[in-house]
Amino acid sequence: MRFALIAHTDKYIVAPPLKAVFEWCKKNRVKTFALSSLYDLAGIKPDSNLQVTESNSESVRQAEIVVAIGGDGTMLYTAQKLKNLDIPVLGINCGRLGFMANIQQDQIDQALKSVVRENYRIDERAMLQAQVNGSDTYHALNEFLFTKKDTTSMISVTAGYDGQFVNSYWADGLIVATPTGSTAYNLSTGGPIVMPKTPVMLLTPINPHTLTTRPLVLPSDRTLTVRVEKEVEHVLFSYDGKIMEINENQLEVTIQQSDHSVKLIQLKGQNYFDTLRTKLMWGLDSRENK
Fold first, then answer.
1. Which residue among 50, 139, 146, 273 sits deepest, i.e. has the most Cβ atoms within 10 Å of its Cβ?
2. Structural domains of the chain, ranges and CATH numbers in brackets
3. Which residues are marked as active site?
4. Looking at residue 59, what DSSP letter applies?
């Protein structure tokens, strides 16, 4: 079996779990591909099994399994690398919530052992795709975001679905999220939690001027069209946190189900509702420790 290691070294303290993964791979003679900077950070010398690559893309192309160390942002970065490849990813959490990177650091040995023994299941997460002004196409595992920039004023965004007018939003922004992204920015703005594999997309306004304007859950097998026709220069468009430069005087984005998906490795005994209860502290009574 061949592993590729990807880690977010700027935001998280990844040296301990990185070292643990390298040492496990060396001990068990698992061929591993990673950037030289990751070996340096972990204090591990490359050898015939632990090999150096020039880029994360090269590491991924050599691998059968990708091990991503960081938080959900690292998982989103890794998803972009994997969207054209049929390679599963194991996420080791060094961040805060970690809905996708849900392997804790004290589970590393168990997780790697389970992966090598193929004692796991695949949680396949669908992506959305967006075409911008009839040209470039982008894919998102979490969300597409339309939000204000360089202004304190609200922005005006219009949405249509399957050829029908939905609404004109006067708000701080608009989120179009996948079920995976329902627990990200969408959740913090009051959007619903949707179980992964549900074939829908979520349309959630950010601080709308009209309080009766509520989030919508729409089937993802039809096309959602989002238009910004005024003051486009004050609107920021991004996918999974990556900001796109819009150099035209209008913005029209068509969004629908993508042909791409990401395969997350789940250990046996893990399930989505356990993750929700743990990460969102459901059922926790703050009075119990008083």
1. 146
2. 2-118 (3.40.50.10330), 127-259 (2.60.200.30)
3. 72
4. H
Sign of CA dihedral 225, 229, 232, 234: negative
Asked whether the whole model's pTM tops 0.85, one would answer: yes
50: helix, coil or strand?
A: strand
290 residues of the chain, pLDDT tens digit each = 999 999 988 877 899 999 999 999 999 999 999 999 999 999 999 999 999 999 999 999 999 999 999 988 999 999 999 988 999 999 999 877 678 888 889 999 999 999 999 999 999 999 999 999 998 999 999 999 999 988 788 999 999 999 999 999 999 999 999 999 999 999 999 999 999 999 999 999 999 998 889 999 999 999 999 999 888 888 999 999 999 888 888 899 999 999 999 999 999 888 888 888 888 888 776 656 65
Q: Are 209 and 154 contacting, i.e. CB atoms less than 8 angstroms apart?
A: yes
Find tokens 């993802």 and name the residue.
Answer: 220
CA dist 139 to 34, 117, 262, Å?
Answer: 25, 32, 11
